[in-house]
């Protein structure tokens, strides 16, 4: 049959799928040969590759949410869980691949000695111990693997041709990694605390110098009225505002309340219990003194929300203590009265004692403000200098107090980090001795051979179609050249035909060798490096 008539084409325009199928079928060996060669090379790679075993342990990172404001919540530093996992993965990778950690693992496991011994057995010139450590560390870095295995879960493993070596190495590396990772997490907090303690020493020294300078200046002043006076230019306004509010309350609501309580107990007990008798009681007077001291200190401060919140909490505790002690003494003095009557007497005495303490505070504030204003009017220069020194002392005291609170905070966070509520890393699944190698991966190699053969085969077929400039049918000749074919001749096999045949054979040999070269590089060079 005439070869030009074996592929009749349709005369209509457009894409002809059957023509494409016939074109591929005519060049089927361009796909069959790569398929056979690539699969053969995959089988060869499976047979000759050294088995590689993998042993890994699962590590879990734990960050608990703390509900108390006294302990820093570590989880708040991260947004979504994947953000935390990303940061944790980077920290773990930096630690595992650090030169110091790798060299320490090499020396602990004696990997450098094994490397030197293997070189001696192979007849190579032995290398120095330092160079052997570096080379073994580089090899260990290549064989170490860290992968995320879920939320807050990570796999750390080692690849090695010997399953026992892989299991031994990862077991030691995991233990060392946990110790190093915990130490790194605590190092930041410890360093911060140590820095704050160093700064606190300097602030305390500055405060002591400022207090000494203030004491010397006060002792050298002509007037001694301000030596024990806490009022100064900074808190004078606060003292006067609080004093005015305190007096308005005493003259108004407090006096009305006291009269109401006194009227309630007039029909219960006569004569009325004296406040002085209760004020002389040591347990009660101690609480009153604490309340007076607390109120005086608060009266000199600005009315900030945080300051008043702390003041209210401390004053509330003192009030409860005072009420309990007054109630105990009333119960002892009036055992025949009923519970309600004793309760009314307790309220009367408690309110009276509380008001007596407030009167002490207001009297002290009034005396101190008057003394300070009188002093500033008579000695303005000394007053200005005294105000400067007092400002320095107050500023230094605030810095010392803030630093001490911050150190307490850091100690709490440090202790929390070392406890069950802190930042933890634990082994969730211990490594085990691998029973079967992970490399070579037969399925992966065969799939790689299939994909490589299909890619090479399809590429060669498409290239052959585009480079084929011959006619394949009579209709193709007539349509392309615009001539009428009146007959066809068979192919004459002469010297030219023989030369073309040899050229085709050479082309096929070149193609086969090229496919072998690509398959060899892919399966024996690229694949081991990728895996």
Describe this structure in words.
This protein is an alpha+beta fold and 531 residues long. The protein is built from 16 helices and four strands. α7 runs antiparallel to α13. A hairpin with a 2-residue loop joins β2 (144-150) and β3. The radius of gyration is 47 Å and the shape is elongated. It has three domains: 3-49 and 440-530, no CATH class; 53-194 and 422-429, 2-Layer Sandwich (Bacterial polysaccharide co-polymerase-like), CATH 3.30.1890; 236-378, no CATH class. The protein has helices at residues 17-26, 29-48, 81-96, 99-109, 111-121, 129-143, 163-219, 236-266, 275-279, 282-299, 305-333, 339-378, 380-417, 442-467, 474-481, 495-530, and strands at residues 53-63, 144-150, 153-160, 423-429. Strands 2-3-1-4 form a four-stranded antiparallel beta sheet.
Q: What is the name of the CATH topology of the largest domain? A: Bacterial polysaccharide co-polymerase-like
List how many beta strands DSSP finds: 4
Overall pLDDT? 78
Q: Strand sequence of the main sheet, in spatial order?
A: 2-3-1-4
């Amino acid at each position: 049959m005439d070869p030009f008539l074996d592929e009749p084409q349709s005369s209509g325009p457009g894409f002809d799928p059957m023509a494409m199928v016939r074109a591929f079928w005519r060049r089927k060996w361009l796909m069959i040969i790569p398929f056979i060669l690539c699969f053969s090379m995959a089988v060869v790679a499976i047979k000759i590759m050294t088995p590689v075993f993998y042993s890994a342990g699962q590590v879990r990172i734990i960050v608990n949410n703390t509900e108390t404001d006294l302990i820093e919540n570590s989880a708040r530093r991260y947004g979504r869980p994947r953000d935390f996992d990303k940061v944790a993965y980077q920290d773990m990778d930096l630690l595992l691949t650090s030169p110091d950690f790798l060299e320490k693992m090499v020396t602990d496991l004696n990997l450098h000695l094994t490397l030197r011994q293997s070189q001696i057995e192979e007849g190579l010139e032995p290398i120095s111990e330092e160079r052997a450590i570096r080379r073994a560390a580089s090899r260990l870095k290549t064989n170490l693997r860290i992968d995320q295995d879920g939320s807050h879960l990570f796999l750390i493993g080692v690849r090695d041709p010997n399953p026992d070596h892989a299991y031994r190495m990862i077991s030691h590396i995991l233990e060392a990694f946990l110790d190093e990772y915990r130490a790194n997490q605590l190092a930041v907090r410890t360093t911060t605390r140590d820095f704050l303690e160093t700064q606190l020493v300097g602030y305390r020294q500055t405060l002591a110098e400022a207090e000494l300078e203030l004491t010397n200046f006060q002792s050298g002043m002509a007037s001694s009225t301000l030596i024990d006076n806490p009022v100064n230019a900074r808190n004078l306004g606060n003292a006067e505002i609080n004093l005015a509010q305190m007096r308005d309350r005493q003259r108004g609501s407090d006096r009305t309340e006291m009269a109401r309580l006194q009227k309630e107990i007039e029909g219960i007990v006569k004569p009325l219990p004296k406040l002085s008798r209760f004020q002389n009681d040591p347990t009660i007077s101690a609480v009153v003194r604490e309340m007076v001291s607390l109120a005086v200190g608060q009266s000199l401060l600005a009315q900030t929300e945080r300051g008043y919140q702390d003041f209210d909490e401390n004053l509330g505790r003192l009030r409860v203590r005072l009420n309990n002690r007054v109630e105990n003494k009333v119960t002892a003095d009036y055992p025949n009265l009923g519970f309600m009557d004793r309760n009314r007497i307790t309220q009367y005495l408690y309110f009276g004692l509380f008001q007596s303490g407030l009167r002490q505070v207001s009297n002290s504030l009034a005396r101190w403000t008057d003394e300070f204003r009188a002093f500033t009017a008579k000695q303005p220069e000394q007053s200005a200098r005294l105000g400067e020194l007092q400002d320095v002392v107050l500023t230094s005291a605030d810095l010392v107090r803030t630093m001490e609170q911050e150190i307490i905070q850091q100690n709490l966070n440090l202790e929390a980090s070392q406890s069950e509520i802190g930042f933890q890393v634990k082994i969730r699944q211990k490594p085990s001795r691998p029973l079967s190698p992970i490399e070579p991966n037969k399925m992966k190699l065969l799939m790689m051979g299939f994909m490589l053969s299909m890619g090479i085969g399809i590429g060669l077929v498409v290239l052959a179609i585009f480079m084929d400039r011959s006619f394949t049918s009579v209709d193709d000749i007539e349509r392309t050249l615009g001539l009428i074919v009146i007959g066809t001749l068979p192919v004459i096999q002469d010297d030219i035909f023989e030369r073309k045949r040899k050229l085709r054979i050479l082309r096929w040999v070149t193609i086969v060798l090229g496919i072998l070269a690509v398959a060899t590089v892919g399966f024996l060079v690229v694949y081991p490096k990728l895996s």
